Inverse folding.
């Protein structure tokens, strides 16, 4: 099948490529894009010819490539009567519009952009009608919305164009999303997204519990796209687009996409009460509303827009009636409407172009200025009104006929033909107004330009379309007969019902209705002045746009309010939420599982020292809070807490932790004191009492949570993996201090990460402090200036004396680390304390002068040792960080065990020194730098 | 013993070390070095991905100690995918930073950058919960440095919040890990899965609480409602390349959820199985709506992009929360898309902001049009991709997730949730597009034409473009991508095989 | 004993949380430090409490404390130290650039009505 015809995807891709070329070619030659567009369109038409015979023979061409098998999204295309009909409409009218646009665009419009978007739209539209896979159809569907957004907003500098474009996008895209939902549900119901399966599964779908929601979602897509009530209002505002766009999108193609889908899914979804009621009601409402409003529009395009709405309503109504003949009428009317409406839009374009206005209160008696156009317009308008011998008449007859059929259903279904006639009356009226106001009705009123006949290439398309109107109107069977037949067949997925395309069916009710419509329309038009006045008085104000705008605005307001409330950029706010969630989840965890909170492991008896340690711990923490407004004191209390913690560690048989905690404690406190120098000595005024209360609740809640969690674990036995460490520490790791062996060997990788963190902290702080500018009061709280002298002689001597001593201790701690409490980290901290002491004692210059090491290099060196140890192991074919150890006899020390892990520990040692000293000294230097009172205000950089 | 597993971790670590040593050689040298290193990392990751295609879970016993006692690195398809994604992203952002000379705004940019990659890769590869904590700290501290890189009051404030909130997160992480250890006495993920499965029922409360706490920690990283408050300002106020690189940071949290909870609380865990799922799904949906509203409420383009990033994370949370093979596969596809495209958009937003001069990226100021070449197309492209409009990758990913949701009992909540939020985002982006790019008056009087076409911007646009290309590529290759992600998910959900691989991995020379 | 430890963990957590929720950076840092103490004690206790049984291999010893949590705590202490140092310096930077030491850079006068 694929080789016998051309590949259908080409039909979609060619315009796309053409669009790209068109967009690019513009900068070389202004007329190039037009030719690109024409060529692309013609090419598709030509490519289509070989496929036509098959389609007219009633075949359905399906070409499919696998795309995303997981979700059944195939790159699948389908060419049958219905899609052929639409394809031809899209291409032929497209071609005419391109020809027409060639002269329409003014000098400062960019043809590249126009035709780029135009062809993008054409290709997505072709995609919609040619898709075999529903998901693929949705893809193209949304692309039509997107490209129409670009086309409507073509004149970006016009506010109405931008608004209209946004509105059209919002409405149609919303419909598109709904459609997507409907399609997904359909796919789930049928088990496939391919139309072949879907169309065959009508009974399954209608019987399925999801039928109604699915139907509603899909209809949302249809109604928004085809401007059905209550979504019709975007169409008139889309008229801000250049007229060729309106002629193409808003009469012939895009607005028909919804109708197309209605026809496409007719076999799968029609035939239920929901379908009948929803679709036909909406259709009827739209038909009447459109026809009625059109009469009162003074802007020609406005009139056409509303008349389009009403005709779309008519078609929808026909599909809603659900009978086969109604479907025939619907499709027939699709063709006719496309022809006469497109030509009318082009006429309006011409008038606008040549006279400079579209206001019917100014435009009068153009007949003598542009007779040829006048004739065309009159014929087209007559077709729109449904005057005999024109195509509009035929489909309207069919419509009336179906209206009568439907009226036999129930008593008040009689309303249908009545309302149908009413609608027809108005459409006659506005058609009459279009003709009479513009071309007769006295002299033009101060037009911007004196109108004259348009250039030929603007007129030819109109000629062509109007001729079609005539020919179809007179010889329907010969002209549209075949295409209509196959289209209907494809729509119904079965042999079409008997119907005749004759002009004359004898005297019958439909004919009577037509006559009534013509007469009534004439009468209505005669009394128009009063109607206008009445309309001015009561209905002018009513415009769905205001509803839409206020809806969007309130949505905007809601979004803003909610976002500003929740995302208010307050740390306390986010902390509150975060901690709240922690509490909630912890609670939920314990609550959801119906398990006891605590276990029944017998508890340890109290140990006096631990009792004191932890008792003191509790008191100290509380006092830290109570005194938190006196910062220095609270800092000291914090130090006390730290010391007690290390005491607790020592008691709970964790000597390494005790040592580490102790040394870290000292350094931390020194650090905080240094910074406190730059921060206000006192906390801000206390926060409001209810806030304190709330925070207290938060705090106590989380505290209880933590305590419960602890106890929940401690009251249960441990199922540990630790015996392994105890067993393998000496034989495998060569160290008696299991904790240290874990750190440097079993879990050395953690330690590697840990020292990287430390290094990063150092570097990050270095980076931060480089450009920090602070203005600090150079006096303490009582206003006494800080002491100027930086080092007291005693401290100086002591520190210099202590230096080697402390270093010796550090070395000792480091060396014993593998077997007894100690190790690289603690040693590192102690050593850095020694160095910091020098800075404190002897001042920065003195120390810097003697201590000629850039801490960066110390850090780098440390990392180098740590990584190096690991890499050596790799070089020997073992995994990263595999350790080895041996014993060697040192002269004095005697038998001494040396493990490769110690190299690693050395790395730790160096990084610790590097980072710690870097941090403290940077702060110290900042301190020094600030000693010269700076004139700069605080936050000016 | 296959050493190549650890190379993705070692390379940036050594790289960071080198950058630290070459400080003196000046920025140009560091740039070259950084680009070479990152390029090497990309190549390495590709190679690792190819090696990982065997479908066998590769395990590396650090220090040659058997699991669960020693720390193991585990490499499967998912990990390999994340490694490659990270390195590609890093390459693009680093080149941008070098071109726009962002790295010169403060010291140590390149060191921090490499160590950031070290932290990320370590987190992706580790098979041990506490080690995951350590690497979270590494990548966080590096990210602190990067967030604060450069200066400015807003940046410092956002940075401070980011740091403090994450410190709280780290504390909670320790509580959670500690509780888990106390409950089941192990730290290795695979071993934990075993122990949890056979844990006595009376401990289920404890384990659930610990598991949910851990979920919350990961949720904080992944920016799940209501824990995402740190994200918008931090991302909107930091320098563009950093924000772009951070497109992967939230994904680390998601990855951790999939890896840890997906393994420990898999089907084998009996009544504890999937204890995180409802929270993830619910949280994801709420996040999605809040993010959509945020996009609508954004005052500037950067803020808007930050909320878009949040929305994509939320979509991923939904995909994970649906917890079906197909939803996860779709999620991984979406993850790749959102990471690359979000990054691209952050960079683009920065270029536009610079180009608009004083107007910067604010919507409030009188419209100044960016005049740089290709801004309009690039912007439109990014919007279409990230908003999830056809025909770009965002849409494909979204429909695949929704298609998976159709078979899920929550479909009547997920479907409207996702559709409505996409609608809101669409409206918002349509407005920004017309605001930023539609000329308000026909006369094009560009008051400020800030170095529109000078060289750095031109070449910076190429970084953006290369990232943007991902969108159409992902669409064209969607079939193959899905085949890959589906295999990945199959391997991911074969937990017994994972456990077997980790706990039974032979040691070099039979160990010690 | 366990109860006492649990309570002290709880108290330290409460105090930490309360201080973290204050509005000035220094207090927040103090709170974070308290929290890190709390979690360290918590982590250690996860290996269950033992008195006088350090995990140092010794033929005489008949029981050992669980060494693994101790190793974890050591790592945690170091990391916490790095973090504390970083955040306190960041607080300095914030004071320099925002002009005050409020966590949101607000003036205390406006703090009341604006704070959450």
């Amino acid at each position: 099948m694929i080789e016998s015809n051309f590949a259908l995807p080409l039909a979609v891709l060619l315009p796309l490529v053409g669009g790209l070329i068109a967009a690019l070619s513009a900068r070389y030659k202004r007329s190039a894009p037009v030719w690109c567009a024409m060529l692309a369109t013609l090419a598709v038409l030509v490519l289509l010819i070989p496929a036509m015979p098959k389609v007219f023979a009633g075949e359905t061409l399906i070409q499919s490539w696998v795309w995303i098998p997981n979700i059944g999204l195939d790159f699948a295309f389908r060419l049958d009567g219905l899609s052929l009909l639409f394809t031809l409409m899209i291409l032929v009218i497209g071609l005419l519009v391109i020809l027409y646009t060639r002269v329409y665009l003014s000098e400062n419009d960019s043809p590249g952009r126009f035709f780029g978007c135009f062809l993008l739209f054409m290709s997505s539209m072709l995609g919609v009608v040619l898709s075999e896979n529903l998901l693929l159809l949705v893809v193209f569907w949304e692309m039509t919305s997107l490209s129409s957004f670009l086309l409507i907003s073509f004149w970006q500098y016009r506010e109405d164009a931008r608004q209209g474009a946004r509105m059209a996008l919002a409405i149609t895209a919303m419909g598109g999303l709904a459609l997507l939902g409907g399609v997904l549900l359909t796919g789930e119901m049928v088990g496939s997204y391919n139309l072949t399966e879907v169309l065959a599964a009508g009974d399954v779908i209608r019987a399925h519990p999801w039928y109604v929601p699915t139907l509603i979602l899909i209809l949302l897509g249809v109604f928004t796209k085809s401007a059905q009530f209550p979504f019709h209002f975007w169409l008139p505002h889309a008229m801000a687009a250049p007229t060729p766009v309106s002629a193409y999108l808003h009469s012939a193609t895009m607005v028909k996409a919804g109708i197309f889908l209605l026809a496409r899914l007719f076999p799968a979804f029609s035939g239920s009460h929901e379908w009948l009621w929803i679709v036909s009601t909406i259709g009827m409402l739209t038909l009447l509303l459109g026809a009625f409003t059109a009469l009162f529009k003074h802007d020609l395009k406005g009139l056409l827009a509303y008349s389009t709405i009403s005709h779309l309503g008519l078609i929808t109504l026909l599909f809603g009636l659900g009978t086969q003949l109604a479907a025939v009428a619907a499709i027939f009317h699709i063709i006719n409407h496309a022809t006469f409406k497109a030509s009318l839009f082009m006429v309006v374009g011409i008038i606008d172009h040549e006279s400079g206005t579209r206001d019917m209160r100014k435009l009068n008696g153009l007949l003598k200025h542009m007779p040829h156009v006048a004739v065309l317009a009159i014929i087209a308008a007559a077709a729109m009104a449904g005057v005999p011998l024109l195509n509009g008449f035929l489909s309207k007859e069919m419509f009336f006929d179906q209206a009568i059929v439907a009226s036999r259903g129930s008593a008040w279904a009689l309303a249908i033909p009545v309302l149908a006639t009413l609608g027809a009356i108005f459409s006659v009226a506005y058609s009459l107004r279009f003709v009479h106001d513009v071309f007769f009705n006295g002299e033009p009123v101060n037009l911007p330009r004196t109108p004259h006949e348009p250039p030929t290439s603007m007129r030819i398309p109109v000629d062509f379309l109007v001729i079609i109107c005539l020919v179809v109107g007179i010889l329907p069977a010969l002209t549209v007969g075949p295409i209509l037949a196959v289209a209907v067949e494809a729509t119904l997925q079965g042999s079409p019902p008997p119907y005749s395309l004759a002009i004359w069916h004898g005297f019958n009710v439909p004919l009577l209705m037509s006559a009534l419509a013509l007469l009534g329309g004439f009468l209505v038009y005669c009394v128009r002045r009063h109607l206008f006045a009445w309309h001015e008085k009561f209905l002018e104000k009513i415009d769905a746009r205001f509803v839409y705008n206020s809806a969007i605005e309130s949505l905007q307001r809601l979004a803003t309010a909610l976002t500003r409330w929740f995302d208010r950029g307050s740390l306390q706010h986010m902390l509150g939420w975060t901690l709240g969630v922690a509490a909630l989840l912890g609670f939920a965890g314990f609550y959801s599982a119906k398990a006891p909170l605590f276990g029944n492991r017998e508890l340890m008896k109290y140990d006096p020292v631990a009792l004191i340690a932890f008792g003191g711990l509790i008191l100290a923490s509380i006092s830290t809070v109570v005194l938190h407004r006196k910062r220095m004191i609270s800092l000291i209390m914090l130090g006390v807490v730290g010391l007690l913690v290390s005491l607790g560690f020592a008691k709970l048989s964790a000597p390494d932790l005790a040592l580490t905690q102790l040394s870290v404690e000292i350094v931390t406190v020194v650090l905080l004191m240094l910074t406190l120098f730059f921060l206000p000595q006192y906390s801000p005024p206390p926060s409001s009492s209810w806030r304190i209360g709330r925070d207290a609740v938060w705090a106590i809640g989380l505290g209880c949570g933590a305590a419960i969690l602890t106890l929940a674990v401690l009251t249960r036995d441990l199922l540990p993996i630790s015996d392994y460490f105890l067993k393998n520490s000496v034989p495998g790791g060569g160290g008696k201090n299991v904790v240290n062996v874990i750190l440097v060997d079993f879990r050395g990788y953690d330690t590697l990460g840990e020292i990287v963190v430390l290094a990063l902290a150092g570097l990050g702080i270095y980076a931060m402090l480089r450009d920090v500018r602070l203005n600090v009061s150079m006096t303490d709280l009582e206003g006494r200036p800080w002491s100027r002298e930086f080092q007291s002689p005693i401290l100086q001597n002591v520190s210099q004396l202590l230096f080697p001593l402390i270093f010796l201790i550090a070395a000792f701690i480091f060396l014993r680390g593998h077997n007894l409490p100690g190790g690289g980290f603690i040693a590192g901290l102690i050593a850095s304390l020694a160095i910091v002491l020098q800075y404190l004692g002897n001042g920065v210059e003195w120390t810097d002068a003697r201590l000629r090491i850039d801490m960066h290099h110390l850090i780098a060196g440390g990392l180098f040792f740590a990584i190096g140890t690991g890499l050596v192991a790799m070089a020997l074919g073992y995994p990263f960080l595999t350790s080895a150890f041996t014993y060697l006899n040192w002269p004095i020390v005697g038998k001494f065990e040396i493990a490769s892990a110690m190299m690693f520990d050395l790395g730790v040692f160096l990084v610790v020194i590097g980072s710690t000293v870097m941090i403290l000294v940077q702060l110290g230097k900042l301190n020094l730098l600030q000693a010269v009172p700076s004139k700069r205000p605080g936050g000016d950089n | 013993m296959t050493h190549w597993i650890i190379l993705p971790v070692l390379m940036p670590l050594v790289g960071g070390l080198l950058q630290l040593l070459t400080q003196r050689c000046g920025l140009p040298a560091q740039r070259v070095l950084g680009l070479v290193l990152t390029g090497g990392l990309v190549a390495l990751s590709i190679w690792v991905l190819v090696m990982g295609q065997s479908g066998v879970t590769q395990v590396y016993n650090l220090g040659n100690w058997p699991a669960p006692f020693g720390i193991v690195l585990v490499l499967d398809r998912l990990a390999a995918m994340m490694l490659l994604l990270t390195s590609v992203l890093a390459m693009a952002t680093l080149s941008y930073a070098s071109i726009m000379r962002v790295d010169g705004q403060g010291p140590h940019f390149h060191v921090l950058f490499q160590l950031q990659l070290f932290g990320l890769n370590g987190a992706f590869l580790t098979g041990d919960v506490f080690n995951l904590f350590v690497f979270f700290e590494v990548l966080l501290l590096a990210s602190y440095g990067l967030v604060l890189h450069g200066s400015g009051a807003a940046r410092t404030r956002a940075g401070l919040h980011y740091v403090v909130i994450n410190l709280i997160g780290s504390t909670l992480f320790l509580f959670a890990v500690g509780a888990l250890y106390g409950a089941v006495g192990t730290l290795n993920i695979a071993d934990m899965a075993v122990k949890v499965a056979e844990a006595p029922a009376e401990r289920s409360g404890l384990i659930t609480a610990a598991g949910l706490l851990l979920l919350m920690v990961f949720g904080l990283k992944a920016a799940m409602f209501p824990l995402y408050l740190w994200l918008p300002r931090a991302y909107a106020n930091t320098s563009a390349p950093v924000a772009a690189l951070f497109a992967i940071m939230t994904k680390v949290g998601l990855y951790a959820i999939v890896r840890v909870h997906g393994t420990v609380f898999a089907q084998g865990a009996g009544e504890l199985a999937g204890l995180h799922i409802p929270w993830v799904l619910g949280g994801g949906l709420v996040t999605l709506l809040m993010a959509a509203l945020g996009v609508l409420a954004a005052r500037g383009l950067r803020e808007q992009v930050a909320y878009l990033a949040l929305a994509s994370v939320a979509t991923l949370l939904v995909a994970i929360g649906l917890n079906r093979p197909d939803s996860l596969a779709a999620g991984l596809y979406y993850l790749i898309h959102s990471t690359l495209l979000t990054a691209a958009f952050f960079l683009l937003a920065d270029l536009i902001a610079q180009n608009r001069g004083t107007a910067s990226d604010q919507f409030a100021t009188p419209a100044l049009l960016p005049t740089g070449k290709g801004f309009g197309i690039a912007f439109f492209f990014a919007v279409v991709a990230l908003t999830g409009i056809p025909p770009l990758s965002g849409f494909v990913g979204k429909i695949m997730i929704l298609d998976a949701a159709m078979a899920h009992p929550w479909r009547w909540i997920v479907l409207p949730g996702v559709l409505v939020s996409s609608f809101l985002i669409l409206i918002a982006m349509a407005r920004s597009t017309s605001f930023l790019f539609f000329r308000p008056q026909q006369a094009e009087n560009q008051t400020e034409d800030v170095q529109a076409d000078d060289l750095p911007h031109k070449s910076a646009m190429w970084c953006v473009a290369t990232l943007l290309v991902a969108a159409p590529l992902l669409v064209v290759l969607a079939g193959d991508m899905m085949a890959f992600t589906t295999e990945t998910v199959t391997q991911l959900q074969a937990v017994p095989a994972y456990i077997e691989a980790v706990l039974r991995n032979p040691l070099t020379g039979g160990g010690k | 004993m366990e109860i006492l430890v649990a309570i002290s963990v709880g108290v330290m957590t409460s105090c930490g949380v309360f201080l973290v929720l204050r509005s000035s950076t220094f207090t927040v840092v103090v709170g974070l430090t308290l929290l890190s103490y709390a979690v360290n004690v918590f982590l250690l206790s996860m290996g269950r409490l033992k008195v006088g049984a350090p995990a140092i291999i010794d033929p005489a010893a008949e029981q050992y404390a669980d060494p693994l949590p101790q190793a974890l705590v050591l790592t945690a202490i170091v990391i916490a130290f790095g973090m504390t140092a970083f955040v306190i310096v960041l607080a300095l930077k914030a004071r320099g650039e925002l002009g005050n030491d409020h966590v949101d850079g607000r003036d205390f006068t406006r703090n009341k009505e604006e704070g959450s």
Notes: Chain A touches chain B through 123 residues (CB under 8 Å). The longest helix of chain A spans residues 159-190. The longest strand of chain A covers residues 61-68. Chain A has 39 helices and four strands.
